[in-house]
Amino acid sequence: MSPLKTSFPKHKMKVVLLESISQSAVESFKKAGYTQIEQHSGALSGEELDEVLKDAKILGVRSKTQLTEEVIQKAKKLVAVGCFCIGTNQVDLEAANKAGVCVFNAPFSNTRSVAELVIASAIMLIRRIPDKDKAAHAGEWDKSSENAHEIRGKRLGVVGYGHIGSQVSILAESIGLKVSYYDVENKLPLGNAEAVGDLKTLIEESDILTLHVPGTQETKNLFNAEVLSWFTKGQLLINMSRGDVVDIQALKKALDEERIGGAALDVFPEEPKNKAEKFTSPLQNVPNVILTPHIGGSTEEAQWNIGVDVSGKLIKYIESGASLGSHSIPELSLPKMEDTHRILHIHKNVSGVLSEINSKISKLNVNILGQYLSTNFEVGYVVLDISKNDSLDTLKELKKIDHTISARILY
Ligand SMILES: NC(=O)c1ccc[n+]([C@@H]2O[C@H](COP(=O)([O-])OP(=O)(O)OC[C@H]3O[C@@H](n4cnc5c(N)ncnc54)[C@H](O)[C@@H]3O)[C@@H](O)[C@H]2O)c1
Ligand SMILES: O=C(O)CC[C@@H](O)C(=O)O
């Protein structure tokens, strides 16, 4: 299929990619005809972020760049944001929705990479490899088997049985672990995994706990001092979800008191924005603790696939209006345009807008060849496939309608 033309020429659309997004995304944009691609290796904030967003139509971020309501409101030309990762908690999705900015992510391209690191970390912790490694580097030869165990036959407790949690469960069973899980939703158990009805029982029954919940208000401090007090027998804790899910000071206390026997943390409440910033944590130099710099999904395979996935969604949205997978404006799956022009109208979801769209169309006496609508609580998204001769007049009229957030045309 030859690339679609857009009313706004692609070579004039600025694409900004932050946080070392994979070259696969750059290649996809270039192949689709986008030439203004600006790449930055780290996250941006404050004036620097506002400045690059002044004339950006498309923005790509990973987990560090905070797209607050203020930032989104200032980015007047922004049409779509791609989170080149799973998490979307760094974006104010409500503000993006209200501004008519479509937000996509890559819901599963790095799940396998995270799941592999969880299994690797569990084995490292249960063998107390962090301490042995440190000792060997310091010239000490400690061959003792004390407190080092096989993972076979131990029970893994998975908190959050979604894409990653369930994949960890499959890998864990394949090397002889028993698996239980706790999820707020009713989830189909894979393999021989068993659902447990409450977090306390899961913690008490497991030897290793691994966290795979999303970063939301509900999961903030989910593992607080009270929950961490349910660890009494030296269980191991792995967190590769979001940093603020665990109260770090309370975790340190539990490690110091040996109620928790070791921990692997890939995410932290405060993470450096780039390589130049220093990383500090109360858990540095605590025995049997593995600290990694938020690299659960950082493999070449995962990053390449994420680049392809998210750039594909962004290009499709810009060039066809299809918003399937959007986390902000309503989702619409659209057919190919057949010898028509397409108008995309995003508006506040208040009564009267749809009837006004239809009344304008009937007054102009235009031929509508396809009409698609999707709404959420705040916003409505209408797509009209329209005869080529009528499209520009119709767009002009639709732009005048009260409560219009944005309107654009594709041809
Ligand atoms: N460390 C990394 O590099 C890395 C990489 C990828 C994803 N992540 C993070 O991993 C987490 C999980 O990702 P995913 O793709 O599996 O998400 P997902 O949405 O597929 O699964 C999350 C699961 O958690 C459950 N859940 C929500 N609230 C819960 C609660 N309070 N208690 C128990 N269960 C709860 C949900 O019902 C869902 O089943 C996310 O926070 C994501 O941002 C981290
Ligand atoms: O690549 C990143 O910055 C974030 C990775 C991970 O936390 C995700 O949400 O996919």
UniProtKB/TrEMBL annotation:
Q: Which GO terms describe its biological process?
A: L-serine biosynthetic process
**Which keywords fit this entry according to its UniProt record?**
NAD, Oxidoreductase
Kind of enzyme, top EC level?
A: oxidoreductase
The reactions it catalyses are: (R)-2-hydroxyglutarate + NAD(+) = 2-oxoglutarate + NADH + H(+); (2R)-3-phosphoglycerate + NAD(+) = 3-phosphooxypyruvate + NADH + H(+)
UniProt entry tagged with the keyword NAD:
yes
What family is this protein classified in? Answer: Belongs to the D-isomer specific 2-hydroxyacid dehydrogenase family.
Which Enzyme Commission number(s) are listed? 1.1.1.399, 1.1.1.95
- Please report a single Pfam family linked to this protein: 2-Hacid_dh
Pathway it works in: Amino-acid biosynthesis; L-serine biosynthesis; L-serine from 3-phospho-D-glycerate: step 1/3
Example GO molecular function term? Answer: NAD binding
> Which top-rank group of organisms is this from?
Bacteria
**Species the sequence originates in:** Psychroflexus aurantiacus
Could you identify this protein by its name? D-3-phosphoglycerate dehydrogenase
